[in-house]
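Weekly structure sync, notes
Attendees: PL (lead), two postdocs, one rotation student
Agenda item 3: pending single-chain targets
PL asked that the sequence for the first pending target be pasted directly into the notes so everyone works from the same version. It is reproduced below exactly as submitted, 312 residues in total.
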Amino acid sequence: MVAELAERLAARLPGRVDRDVPLRRFTTYRLGGPAQIYVEPRDVDDLVVLGEELAREPQRAPVLAVGRGSNLVVSDRGWPGVAVRLGAGFSYIEDDGDEGLRAGGASALPQVANRAARRGLHGMEFAIAIPGSVGGAVRMNAGAHGREVSDCLSYADVYDLVNLRRDRRDVARLDLAYRHSNLAPDDVVISAVFRLDRGDPNEVRERMESYRRHRAETQPGAVQNAGSVFRNPPGDHAGRLVEASGLKGHRVGGASVSALHANFFIAEEGSTAQDVYDLVHQVRSLVREAHGVDLVPEIRFVGHFDGARADG
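Predicted structure, written out during the meeting:
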C-alpha cells in the first residue's frame, strides 16, 4: 500500500516525492529515522493532489507536518506514513496593509520579526528567539518573553488534507491557548497574517537585541536541543522545578539535562531519540515525586517509542 501510494504521488508530483527520507535532517535534535513517504509541495495545488491520493487509500496513511523541527523528536524507527514539508514556494514574507505582514507557512519566524522591525512595527519582537516556522508557530501558539502568536495573529490560511478544503481561520477558530491549537495532523498552515502596531524602530530593535542576548546567556544555543522541553505550569517555571529536583546534568544514554538551563535537554553525538524520550519521562516522574507537579511536555514525540506510543 505504501509503495503504491508513493508511486501515484511521484507520478503526479514529479521531483517532490521520495521514499525513506531521514527526518533527522529536518529537526534541531538531528535524531530520528526515515519517513516512509516524504512529500515537499511547492504550492497549494500540490497539497490538493496529496489530499486526493490519501483519500484513495483503503486505510489512510498518517500525516506528519514537518516545519523547521525545533520542537520535534522523531522515533529512531521513523515515521510510519507521510511526512509533509512545505517547499520554497511557501517561504515568503510580504506587507499586508500599513500594519500587517503575511508570511508563508515555511517562513522562519525570526525573519518575520526582522521584517516587522525594519517597518517600524512592534509586537513580533518575541519571535526573534523562536527558531521555528510560521506554520509550526501557529500550530503550537509559540511564545516567549510574555507574548505568543495569538497576541498578534489575525488569521491563518489552512489546507485540510481530509476534506480537500482551503480554509481561513482566525484566532477564535484556531482555539489558541498556551502552546495549543486545534489544528489536526492533516491540517497544513499555508500562510498567516499578523496585525501589529506602529512603534519606534529603535525601541523595537533594542527589545529584539535584548531578547537575543537573553537567549545567548541563558540557553544552550549551539548544541542539539529542541528548546523548552516542558510547558511552564501555572504560577511556576518548569526549569525551576527540574533544577530544584537536583536534575541539572541528569543523563540517560547520550541525552542530558542542560547545566545552563534545566528546561533544555541536550542530545550528544551518538545519542538516540529513545534516549531523549526516556530522559523526558524520567525527569517528569522525578519532578512529580519531588514536587507533586505533573509537567507536560512541550516538545512532540512522533512515531513509536519503547514503553509507549508517542503522540502524533
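Discussion points:
- The radius of gyration is 20 Å.
- The first strand starts at residue 17 and ends at 22.
Action: rotation student to compare against the earlier draft before next sync.
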